[in-house]
């Protein structure tokens, strides 16, 4: 009875009123997932009683009503309620039928009620007892998983007010005299197996076996009745959770490897941080069983993401990384053989294709590298999974799947988890299901749950998409159903931590705990499944493997980071990992191809498709531009995309409102005005054998979506993957992905990536949240030395960590997109795209700038009258982006065409030292001025100034023109914006300004 007392005590928060209410809300009259409204009793009861409802002789309608009544008497009409009460008490069909209450809703008269109770004294008790048992069953189903407590500390220390089981049962209206009474089981449970009724004592025993042993399941929040019944069927049937002798031995072997690996590391490197798995060693057999079951069902590739705790163990015993490669990471004297800065051992990833010994099938396992930003890897894993599914034609997620591991506190507390969940059902982002494994440490970083978690369980998000959540304790059984493992950290946050500082009671309990391997071995030994000799031989075998690997690791003198690649691109690089060629190829196209793509961009290649009248005008305008041999920004992008698709490059463009374009300029998806949800994507009609074009509006997320697109770009170098921010300013909510993955990804993990970020940028008086894409942040993170003049421009591209451009012409945008794929390596590309220039009459390009032989222009020199007498030019103004057109307009108004030269730096990183030098040498008597519309402490100035000075060997000063320093990116007042603009334009063309300053 002690177990019953403990269990019922934990289940107490479910009150009778709450139970009836929740039952009514979850399934008031639910049959097959549909809601039923039961009519008042009319002629149905002429020849029926309660008993046939269970043996199938009654109509299904009446049977369903009876089951609904058992759950909640208020879910049926009052007439049926009276009938079922009397029939259950043994009344004959005629006696059971009573007239319903008046239609006015008045209660049954006192005399009638007293008469009924007097003649049927057991009716009320019978109904109440059935409802009480139903409430008890539901309480186990809803809250049974809270019983799991491997340390025995969740309920606190023993208390003197332990209440007897009789009083606990009394909470449900039952007492100990009811334990041996037989109760008919409700249809919402399968604990009876083939039996339809059981004694209450047996009911409780079977519920404990189903929900309160080494596994609990959290599923009653799911609205789908069929799913709930499926889970009940799997968990509640007696004798289901049984393992064969071979399965038990396999689990023991995996537990030996998991446990002894950690113990070996602790012996050899006791003072090294490794974020070991002690206290949750059962995670390894759990993951391996998930992989086994997936492989049995046809999965060929699994992409995994996880935090640092247990990563080395997963690499060794799940991915099967060579142990000597892991052990050599502990050698502080190891020299790096590869480029890049590298990363700590518990951040690295791995890719491995091997035979699954359980299924004898090949399976590819990838563990993605990620930083200490815990859940940041979640969307990256999902994106890579989606890409692999896309490239192998897996439209249902049956060949490629993902597994995400989480710490309990991070899973509950990091917003990117929600963002990633939100993507899971969107057509262009779904991976058709993910296995989430939450490692419930019962302790967050060094903080205890009450101070770091405002919830009672680590999985509060499961109610959002309603996946079932399983809560096993640290035991390897039923690992293939794991979702949240309840465990502990034996060594605290890391091996150098002293957890007794903050969790003294918990760690007193932990020190007294036997390891899970020892517990499992003793269980199997008692069953006769293994012998002591078998166990000791298994341990000796793995210890020998570790020792031999350690000996080999000591011979390692060089660290090969490329052995830790999580996304290799076979065939893309040469054997030595360098590009196949370092030459700069032309990115131009024949005019007939430009014309073909241009007219396709101006048409609707589907018959009987009605587009909006406003869109008709836009398409006619495009056609007119093609006839005039010019293109604007949207058409230049169309031509770059269309040509790459024709050449076999898959393109994926994602972001908020990218299908139309935030500024209604793109219109890559056309919508039929007469047929709902009928669309046309002209870009997919460029050529018969073209690659597919994917353009998809994303959810209102930056962090999660950018991570997803980054992961998608990792899968293949032969795809152009672009993410566009709605406004460039909004990338700051994805800063973690930029800072931790995109900027240093190649340096930390030797992993090239060609993702493109399109960030609308420009000061148009639209306020501080819609003006600046914060170019200073990207430029500050460039790895280029501002004081060193480079020798080889193409080598600059290869050596940089990313490429940053601010194109001022559609042609240059066209070229930089094509160069992104045609160059023999991959670098992230950051493009500060325009807003007002999308329709600016001067921001158009001739087809002549896009023909064969043309290239991306890293710098566009002044081609006006200043070129005729360069010695007479008094000032050369360097600038980038939109401000060029404002400078040109001001120069024309002032008539300074022959005294002030204006040069546009289109590629900021890597900096075009060579081309800037040509310009500064051309105008030997000119002041050097950097002009920007951004504030002085923002924008490009701090990045450009030292590089301009290096270019001229510090022989000439560099002057600044622009707005003064400010905290916000822009003013919110349009008049103030225009005043600021005119002020710095006046300074730019005041030829005496800097003479006076000097």
TrEMBL record:
It is found in: Mitochondrion; Nucleus. Its cofactor is Mg(2+); thiamine diphosphate. GO terms for cellular component: mitochondrion; nucleus; oxoglutarate dehydrogenase complex. Its main location: mitochondrion. It catalyses: N(6)-[(R)-lipoyl]-L-lysyl-[protein] + 2-oxoglutarate + H(+) = N(6)-[(R)-S(8)-succinyldihydrolipoyl]-L-lysyl-[protein] + CO2. Gene3D superfamilies: 3.40.50.12470, 3.40.50.970, Multifunctional 2-oxoglutarate metabolism enzyme, C-terminal domain, TPP helical domain. It holds the Pfam family OxoGdeHyase_C. InterPro entries: 2-oxogl_dehyd_N (IPR032106), 2oxoglutarate_DH_E1 (IPR011603), DH_E1 (IPR001017), KGD_C_sf (IPR042179), ODO-1/KGD_C (IPR031717), THDP-binding (IPR029061), Transketolase-like_Pyr-bd (IPR005475). One of its GO terms (biological process) is glycolytic process. SUPFAM superfamilies: Thiamin diphosphate-binding fold (THDP-binding) (SSF52518). It comes from the Eukaryota. Keywords: Calcium, Glycolysis, Isopeptide bond, Magnesium, Metal-binding, Mitochondrion, Nucleus, Oxidoreductase, Thiamine pyrophosphate, Transit peptide, Ubl conjugation. GO terms for molecular function: metal ion binding; oxoglutarate dehydrogenase (succinyl-transferring) activity; thiamine pyrophosphate binding. Residues 631-840 form the Transketolase-like pyrimidine-binding domain. Its EC number is 1.2.4.2. Belongs to the alpha-ketoglutarate dehydrogenase family. This is 2-oxoglutarate dehydrogenase complex component E1. It comes from Hucho hucho (huchen).
């Amino acid at each position: 009875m002690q177990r019953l007392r403990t269990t019922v005590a934990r289940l107490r928060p479910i009150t009778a009123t709450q139970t009836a209410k929740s039952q009514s809300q979850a399934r008031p009259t639910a049959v097959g997932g549909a809601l039923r409204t039961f009519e008042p009793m009319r002629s149905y009861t002429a020849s029926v009683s309660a008993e046939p409802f269970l043996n199938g002789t009654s109509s299904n309608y009446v049977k369903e009503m009876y089951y609904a009544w058992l759950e909640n008497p208020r879910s049926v009409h009052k007439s049926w309620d009276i009938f079922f009460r009397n029939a259950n008490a043994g009344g004959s069909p005629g006696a059971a039928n009573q007239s319903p209450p008046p239609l006015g809703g008045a209660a049954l008269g006192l005399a009638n009620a007293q008469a009924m109770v007097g003649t049927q004294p057991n009716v009320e008790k019978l109904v109440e007892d059935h409802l009480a048992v139903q409430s008890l069953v539901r309480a186990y189903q809803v809250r049974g998983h809270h019983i799991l407590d491997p340390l025995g500390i969740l309920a606190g220390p023993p208390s003197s007010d332990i209440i007897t089981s009789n009083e606990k049962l009394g909470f449900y209206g039952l007492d100990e005299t009811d334990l041996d009474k037989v109760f008919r089981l409700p249809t919402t449970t399968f604990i009876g197996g083939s039996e339809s009724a059981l004694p209450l004592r047996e009911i409780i025993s079977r519920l404990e076996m189903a929900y309160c042993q080494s596994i609990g399941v959290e599923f009653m929040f799911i609205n789908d009745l069929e799913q709930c019944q499926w889970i009940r069927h799997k968990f509640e049937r007696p004798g289901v959770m049984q393992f064969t002798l071979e399965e038990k031995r396999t689990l023991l072997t995996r537990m030996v490897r998991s446990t002894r690996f950690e113990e070996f590391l602790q012996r050899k490197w006791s003072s090294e941080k490794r974020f070991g798995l002690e206290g949750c060693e059962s995670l390894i057999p759990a993951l391996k069983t998930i992989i086994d079951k997936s492989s049995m069902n046809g999965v060929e590739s699994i992409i995994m993401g996880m935090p640092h705790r247990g990563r080395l163990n997963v690499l060794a015993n799940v991915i099967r990384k060579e142990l000597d490669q892991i052990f050599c990471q502990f050698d502080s004297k190891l020299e790096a053989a590869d480029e890049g800065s590298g990363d700590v051992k518990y951040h690295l990833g791995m890719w491995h294709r091997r035979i699954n010994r359980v299924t004898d099938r090949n399976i590819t396992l990838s563990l993605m590298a990620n930083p200490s930003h815990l859940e940041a890897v979640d969307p990256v894993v999902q994106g890579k999974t989606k890409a692999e599914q896309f490239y192998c034609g897996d439209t249902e997620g049956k060949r490629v799947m993902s597994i995400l591991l989480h710490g309990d506190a991070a899973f509950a507390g990091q917003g990117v988890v929600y963002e990633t969940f939100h993507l899971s059902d969107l057509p262009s982002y779904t991976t058709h299901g993910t296995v989430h494994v939450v490692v419930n440490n019962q302790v967050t970083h060094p903080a205890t749950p009450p101070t770091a978690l405002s919830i009672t369980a680590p999985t509060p998000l499961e109610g959002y998409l309603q996946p079932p959540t399983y809560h096993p304790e640290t035991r390897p059984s039923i690992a293939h159903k794991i979702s949240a493992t309840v465990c502990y950290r034996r060594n605290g946050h890391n091996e150098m931590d002293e957890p007794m500082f903050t969790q003294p009671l918990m760690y007193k309990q932990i020190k007294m705990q036997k390891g899970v391997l020892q517990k499992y071995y003793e269980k199997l030994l008692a069953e006769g499944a293994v012998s002591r000799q078998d166990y000791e031989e298994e341990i000796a075998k793995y210890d020998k493997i570790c020792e031999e690997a350690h000996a080999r690791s000591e011979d390692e003198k060089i660290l090969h980071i490329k052995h830790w690649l999580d996304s290799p691109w076979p065939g893309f690089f040469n054997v030595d990992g360098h590009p196949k060629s370092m030459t700069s190829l032309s990115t131009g196209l024949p005019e007939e191809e430009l014309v073909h793509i241009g007219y396709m961009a101006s048409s609707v290649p589907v018959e009987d498709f009605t587009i909006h009248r406003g869109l008709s005008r836009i398409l006619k305008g495009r056609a007119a531009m093609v006839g005039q041999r010019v293109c604007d920004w949207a058409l230049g992008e169309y031509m770059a995309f269309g040509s790459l698709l024709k050449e076999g490059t898959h393109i994926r463009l994602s972001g908020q409102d990218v299908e139309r374009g935030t500024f209604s300029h793109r219109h890559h998806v056309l919508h039929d005005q007469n047929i709902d949800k009928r669309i046309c994507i002209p870009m997919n009609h460029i050529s018969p054998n073209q690659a597919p074009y994917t353009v998809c509006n994303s959810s209102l997320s930056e962090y999660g979506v950018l991570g997803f697109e980054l992961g998608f770009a990792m899968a293949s170098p032969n795809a152009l993957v672009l993410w566009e921010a709605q406004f460039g300013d909004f990338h700051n909510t994805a800063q973690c992905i930029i800072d931790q993955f995109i900027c240093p990804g190649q340096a930390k993990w030797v992993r090239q990536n060609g993702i493109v970020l399109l960030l609308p940028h420009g000061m148009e008086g639209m306020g501080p949240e819609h003006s600046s894409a914060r170019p200073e942040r990207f430029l500050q993170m460039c790895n280029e030395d501002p004081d060193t003049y480079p020798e080889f421009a193409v080598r600059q591209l290869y050596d940089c960590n990313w490429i940053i451009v601010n194109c001022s012409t559609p042609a240059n945008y066209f070229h930089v997109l094509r160069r992104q794929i045609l160059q023999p390596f991959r670098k992230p590309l950051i493009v500060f795209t325009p807003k007002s220039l999308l329709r600016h009459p001067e921001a158009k390009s001739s087809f002549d700038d896009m023909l064969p032989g043309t290239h991306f222009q890293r710098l566009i020199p002044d081609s006006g009258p200043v070129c005729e007498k360069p010695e007479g030019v008094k000032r050369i103004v360097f600038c980038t982006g939109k401000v060029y057109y404002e400078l040109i307009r001001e120069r024309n108004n002032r008539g300074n065409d022959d005294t002030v030269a204006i040069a546009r730096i289109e590629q900021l990183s890597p900096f075009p030292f060579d081309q800037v030098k040509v310009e500064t040498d051309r105008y030997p008597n000119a002041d050097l001025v950097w002009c920007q519309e951004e504030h002085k402490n923002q924008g490009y100035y701090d990045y450009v100034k030292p590089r301009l000075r290096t270019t001229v060997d510090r022989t000439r000063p560099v002057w600044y023109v622009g707005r003064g320093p400010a905290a916000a990116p822009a003013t919110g007042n349009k008049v103030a914006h225009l005043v600021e603009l005119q002020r710095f334009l006046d300074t730019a063309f005041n030829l005496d300004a800097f003479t006076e300053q000097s």
